[in-house]
Amino acid sequence: MKLLVVGSVAFDAIETPFGKTDKILGGAATYIGITSSILGVKSGIVSVVGGDFPQEHLDMFTKRDINIEGLEIVKEGKTFFWSGKYHNDLNTRDTLATEVNVLENFDPKIPASMQDSEILLLGNLHPGVQLSVLEKMNQRPKLVILDTMNFWMDSALDILMEMIAKTDVITINDEEARQLSGEYSLVKAAKKIHTMGPKYVIIKKGEHGALLFHEGKVFAIPALPLEDVFDPTGAGDTFAGGFAAYLAKKGKIDFETMKSALIVGSAMASFTVEKFGTERIEEVTEADMFSRLRQFKELTTFDVELQ
Ligand code: AMP
């Protein structure tokens, strides 16, 4: 199946307790595209960058067989810039700067070559932009996956609800699920979110893994316990990318396949956090991925004898 990705392609400046970076490559669509390519899945990115975006990054996408016909370059504009500083626990961060730049007037264009994409992954962006992408598809993709965040719940709730109503799979973190539903229990929160539209609800719990809810069933996975987390930026996007790319690769959309997809997402995210920005995920080979998936299997497989 073909995977269409809409999301930011950005410059990030990141500060963690272990160091800081100047402007480096970032953005949700960047992490998702790179992750898909490791799984050998063809993806296309719909996004926008400015004239300041280096050719070497565009070449990196192309080398990975990522279709960038839908990546608009506004020559006289500047690329979206985000800067954040993580606290010592690495679970929380402050946004230091968000310069929307060319994303401000972003009018997504779906290239003809990607119109037949079966899976659409809408990365974290203004819900109005996400909605417009869906409207611009000649036919509705088989699966619409939505990533969003509390910022849009605070600033654009009505249009976000409209987007959520048209979504098959939503991925949000635990705090956002609580905010969206008004329920503290994540089980109750997922039930409420189902009534808003999505048949599948994924709740991410950072270093504690993720939950998948569907038709009264629930599946839980851990995050890989890592000795050192260096920079969590992009972990959520990498997770979503691994999840969507696995479904695309298998060509199947059901609860059982999604269970495995969740593991793949979590395994891929465990790479991203090991170095700054995209540095680590860009090094990962297919063999690295398999080895980490084996680690996951060991972590989660057990027998129980009751007598
Ligand atoms: P995550 O750590 O999964 O939340 O994703 C981090 C990525 O999201 C960074 O590479 C940023 O460039 C990008 N990002 C941060 N804020 C926004 C925003 N308001 N809109 C789009 N992308 C954003």
Automatic annotation (TrEMBL):
The keyword Transport does not apply. SUPFAM superfamilies: Ribokinase-like. This is Sugar or nucleoside kinase, ribokinase family. Keywords: Kinase, Transferase. Residues 4-279 form the Carbohydrate kinase PfkB domain. PROSITE patterns: PFKB_KINASES_2. It comes from Chryseobacterium limigenitum. Gene3D superfamilies: 3.40.1190.20. One of its GO terms (molecular function) is kinase activity. Pfam families: PfkB (PF00294). The keyword Aminoacyl-tRNA synthetase does not apply.
